[in-house]
Amino acid sequence: MEHFLWDLLQAQQTSGLSAAALVHHEQPGWHRVTPDAGCALPIYRAPCLGRVLYVPIAPTFPLWLNRAIREFAPNILHLHLPNSSALAALSLPSARRLPWVVHWHADLVASQLDRRLALAYQFYRPFEQRLLRHSRAVIATSPPYLEASEALLPWRDRCTIIPLGLDAARVCAPSAEVMGRVAQHWKPGRLRVLAIGRLTYYKGHEVLLRAIAAMPNAQVLIVGSGDRAPLLSQMISDLGLRDRVQLLGSCSDSEVAALLTSCDLLCLPSLERTEAFGMVLLEAMRFAKPVVVSAIPGSGAGWVVEKADNGLLFPPGDSAALTKALEHLAHAPSLRLRLGQNGALALAREFRIDSIAEAISGVYAEALAEGVR
């Protein structure tokens, strides 16, 4: 969400639209940042004390939202959900006076993998529905996600589908120095599989490890940090994969670009609809890399692949099917090339951030016009 928001703000600025953002500070504690005077892209960062059940704890967020509205004086409030802090808009007169557009990135899924989320959602849902009721427009990121979303069911008449987008110019080609450093991770003669994403319950890294255990001709680099790192590290040892699988932890943007440049394909083996779209799929398109993705019912990730025709799909959680898909691509370099090229074309045709920003501006215009009817 963070990369998309930054690209969107930049595109809106370029198109002549003035925009500001309020986000959680990335460092826990009482850090806070206000925009520099004359900053072209005003970014407010509210203090964040940590996370509980993956949710940022930011008790002063309402004060910062009120301040941002007072100082920036927006005509419209664009709320990106899920984000429990955004519920502060319900209680602030300054926010309620503005028209709202809700950007629905994902449902708070009543997870079958982490049952605590189902209980937490019972408390969150009434406020979520109040927020949707107050909105003038809702942006969903794919047709299957909108169709499967129970939360959006009562508000279908105000929903518009606009996919996420990427600014290809932001994702720069890596330097030779970074490429050389990253190249040391790959071993010659093996299929080079890259996975990028938080090491968390729904990402399905365990499925990928089991699939790779049946493929002595493949290796995997996993980028990301998270609470499941110890479990995955132990699983790598138990499966005897230390020489073919590495957990790289968090990587810089330039390192990620180098990994995408040098890999043979990207794998996104997520398990449930918490994986709503998969921004990393657009990053793979930027580097013309094919993808292998789990076809999660009601998720936009499979829809992105089908729309771009840039990869293979497999049933979520099915490591044998994933092995089969990876083996197919391992022995078909021409197919990998064609799928990667399809992705690059799709990024330019369907997922360019300037086109996405233009579509969102149209939603703003309709929401503002609705208030004067």
TrEMBL record:
The segment(s) forming the Glycosyltransferase subfamily 4-like N-terminal domain are: 3-165
**What InterPro entries does the record tag this protein with?**
Glyco_trans_1 (IPR001296), Glyco_trans_4-like_N (IPR028098)
Q: Which UniProt keywords apply?
A: Transferase
- Domain annotation Glycosyl transferase family: ranges: 187-343
What SUPFAM superfamilies is this protein classified in? UDP-Glycosyltransferase/glycogen phosphorylase
Whether Disulfide bond counts among this entry's keywords is no
Q: Which GO terms describe its biological process?
A: carbohydrate derivative metabolic process
Q: Name one GO molecular function term.
A: glycosyltransferase activity
Signal sequence, start to end: none
What protein is this chain from?
Glycosyl transferase family 1
